[in-house]
């Protein structure tokens, strides 16, 4: 599957960036090192000046790719959800029955991440940690409606719609497929966060994973 995925070009909305970072070695270094730096110090402490120091480049060179660090975070989030969508499509492609197909999709969006050798400049394991810890900061802003109109969150919404359609295939009579689909994705992130930081308020620990919880929740909801 990794070989098949490598033939896909992860595409992010052009309105998010000034210059496509995938188009140059510097752009790829910006993405690669921003992932490690945000993971290390957190998004609040992250600056383009610190990133420039890390990659040995002028701060101004980073602004040629992104107007600000918010757009960089939106880019990282969009890349992650596009990669997740490709994973979901590939791993459910050969499954014809509705329930096993939905189960596999839930597993894809909720399981712990392994590094994908198809994209050498992006460490998906570290990026997953950023999505768990920082993803909500990409849309919990005053500008969210404007950015939504400009397509910043198109890829994320497309993933939710794919999951919604699978839910409808399992139970066409279920009244809240879109709400359940978005809940699955957001709950997966939240439960990963809780098991790492607030273990007393989650059952996802020891041998129980967020995937186990979500599979049980969805099965009981749709039956």
CATH homologous superfamily placement: Tetracycline Repressor, domain 2
Characterize the largest beta sheet: strand count, sense, and whether it forms a barrel. none
- CATH topology name: Tetracycline Repressor, domain 2
The string of secondary-structure elements, in order, is: HHHHHHHHHHH
Mean pLDDT: 94
CATH top level assignment:
Mainly Alpha
Count the strands?
A: 0
Q: Judging from the principal axes of the Cα atoms, what is the shape?
A: globular
- Oligomer, anyone? single chain
Give a verbal description of the structure.
This protein has helices at residues 2-5, 25-41, 48-55, 59-63, 69-92, 98-110, 124-134, 144-149, 154-170, 177-197, 210-222. The protein has 223 residues and is mainly α. The chain has one domain (2-222): Tetracycline Repressor, domain 2 (Orthogonal Bundle). The chain starts with a helix and ends with a helix.
What would the keywords be for this entry?
62% helix; mainly alpha; 223 residues; globular; Tetracycline Repressor, domain 2
What's a quick, concise take on this entry?
With 223 residues, the protein is an all-alpha fold.
Produce the secondary structure layout.
Blueprint: H1 2-5, H2 25-41, H3 48-55, H4 59-63, H5 69-92, H6 98-110, H7 124-134, H8 144-149, H9 154-170, H10 177-197, H11 210-222
